[in-house]
Amino acid sequence: MPTAPRLYMDNAATSFPKPKAVHEAMMRYATEIGASPGRGAYAEAREAGRLMQQCRQRLNTLIHGEDPNHVVFTLNTSDALNMAIRGVLDYAVGHDPNRNHVITTWLDHNSVLRPYNALADRSRVEQTRVPCDPQTGVVDPDDIRKAITPRTALIACVHGSNVTGTLQPVRAIGAVAREHDIPFLVDAAQTMGHVPIDVQADLIDLLAFPGHKGLLGPLGTGGLYIRPGIEKRMTTYREGGTGSVSEHDTQPDFMPDRFEPGSHNAIGVIGLSEGVDYILQRGVDNLWSHEQDLIRAMIGGLTEMGELAGLTLFGPQGVKDRCGVFAVRVQGFNDPQTLSDALERDYGILTRSGIHCAPLAHRTFGTHDLGGMTRFSFGPFLTVADVQFACDALSQLCQKHAAV
User: 314 and 365 in contact (C-beta within 8 Å)?
Assistant: First the structure.
């Protein structure tokens, strides 16, 4: 590995570094506990179960959920989104074959687009992809309303774009969905732990989230919050042992066991719990305020460069309607990866270039056939000085390239 200073700006992929308590909790589990939660009555198994439940409670507190047992642990956000999409649609179509219409947006990630498309390919569902503003990426909630039909079974929407950082008006969209009694699924991959989320006030029925991004936990963790009552409008898409009601050969109907077959990733969830606790201790409002300071610094630095540098910033051009994810293209760097390579080689700045698993978003902004964009994404351990350094690096690369 390189030994020169590194500036990690790929937190949209996974957060780094993690709080020290995350590593310590995982080490303690691995060396002192080791047991499978819910699979024994001895002290170590009980302690593992307690720590798992503590994580549910912390997550429920963070999102102002109604019941910690409605926080279901998953492998990641993609797993949570599949659980929600397939669960809701299987139930809806099973009770009414004509209830087979779904809505999403052009800014959504492949973790929503691909499950929708797979179901559509099997002639099970029809979908409407609501366009977004071609400049900002913001969706008009009234366009969601206009897309609803009597057959609509699910509305899914990304909260924060993993390409441009665009924040969608989820509360307004949630109000539209609730008005029509349609389950509303929110992909919080880029906002959980970054932006305050209140599932009750935001009228969110299903919230899918990763453990390894803004929540500062390890890879291989994530979750799905299911509003109480919505689980009755979902089927399970996998079944197995739960350690509970083992005398029955059918899946339990109570939460969270209904959606959690098999042994848990206990070591990961216990690490995740400490990441969530770090956020609760610091306060998500304070973390969001810090991220907004970083956003202002990035916007300020890029604005100073302007078009004279041949740099284009995509998405919202100010602090409003965005989180700390920025995507750019620089004139002369025809392949965005060459810009990422230069940033790493010359400045030690780590970014991600390409299509970012969001092809419709890149079609919206006209970059799909150009190889995508170069993305910078922020985490809580970055400083304003770090952001200013990144802006200076971009400016210098633009100037060097313009002089060639």
Answer: yes
